[in-house]
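Usage

Read records sequentially. Each one opens with the input sequence:
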Amino acid sequence: MRLEDLARVVDPIAVRGDLTREINGLYCDSRQVRSGGLFFALKGVASDGHDFIASARERGAVAVVLEDETRAPCGMEWIRVGDARLAMSRMAALFYGQPTDGVPVVGITGTNGKTTTTYLVEAIMSRAGIPAAVLGTISYRFGSKLVPAPHTTPESVELQATIRDLVDEGAKAVVMEVSSHALEQRRVDSCRFDVAVFTNLTRDHLDYHRDMESYFGSKARLFTELVAPDGVKPRRAAAINRDDSYGARLVETAVAPVISYGLAADAAVRAENVVFSVDGIAGTLVTPFGTALFHSHLLGRFNLYNILAAVAAGVGLGLSLDVILGGIEGDVRVPGRLERVHNERGVTVLVDYAHTGDALENVLKTVSELATGRIITVFGCGGDRDRGKRPVMAEISGRYSHLTIVTSDNPRTEEPAAIIKEVLTGIIPMGLREYDARELNRGFVEKGFTSLVSRHDAIRLAATVAVAGDIVLLAGKGHEDYQIIGTEKFHFDDREEAIAAFRSSDSGE
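and closes with the structure output:
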């Protein structure tokens, strides 16, 4: 594609050089540039892409999009814009043939529930005979193709290229998680969404966003800007959880017709006469397309909201109630979301991605409703991330659990013991008994807590003290199969660790 064609979609402030030059690829990472590439000099949190223009040129870049004209290279084509990320988003969509124009696209945002909701929407579409590609926290997948996800929502160049590939391989729809970072950084600005879904908003990512209002403002863009009906997609919808206080605000400001969902009587999609059990969730589903009984194998109140979100998305897509019911009632299994780990001891072992206070409380509320024995919770908090949630999560675990084992998550460049010390400030004031990990090898009776830096040892301790009827919750990492210590990534999977721990404790090792 010619540079002049790409320039037409970005309203450039200034242009220098031969715009008839052919562009063979788009790049925002100088290390990935290939001959004939267009490089975007993005200003990031930790680095400035203008510093890498020379490197990109050495690797074959023939032109650059930049914001700072004083950093413009001599003897090289360049385009100056006011917002390089927005320019990249628009150019990427054009370069890859506007891949979201011709297929229905569902974008799901919120703090919790995004991943499970993508699985449910995918199941609904499958029931309708629509093969959907899914881009999310766990993976980017379609059919037999499965690629681990480096980011919940990739940069716009990678995103548009990925969607193009998946559509070319036969995907007839796209379901994607949309992170607050992606919305703030305009990664999805040129995706044409048919339905935007809002799950909820609770404290998270405040290491990046200044405060909750900034965090909400990033999420809100999907509903106040990006889902506006246009000539390409004149029928669009916003599926919004009106039971959430931030969702209620979006109901009033969304630029597309709203399909509200929740448990309130005035929600367009709602559930009535709901019963929660170890067998799942049952009740009456009320929608604009009719009313029907339903049963899902998913557990807990928070999953009821995920189900309602998916139903609202199905309504927004105009799918029939029978199709929607068939999707939510199928065998939907979400890796690392209350995922069961089998053992021979009669202990219910659940692995869940809950890594925020709200998510952990939702999971523990669910576990408490289902528990017949004790609850043993193992969790940690990531390093180089929002420190404010550390004591919050500890207090929640201490409130619901009979035994809390505080350990490491992904400590990254922070000292693991220092993170644990901050976490414990939320549980120590509760007056619970603090156990030495060694004494717990003999079991426990009194409600309390302990800490172990090694997550491996923490999971083994939980397996040692658990007895038949107990529930062991391994929270925070979910589907992740790695642990980041310092700047290195090591293989670590809570599910594998739990299987090995119970086998070891069964054999008396």
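Summary fields computed downstream for this record:
- The longest strand covers residues 269-277.
- Residues 380 and 408 are 5 Å apart (CA to CA).
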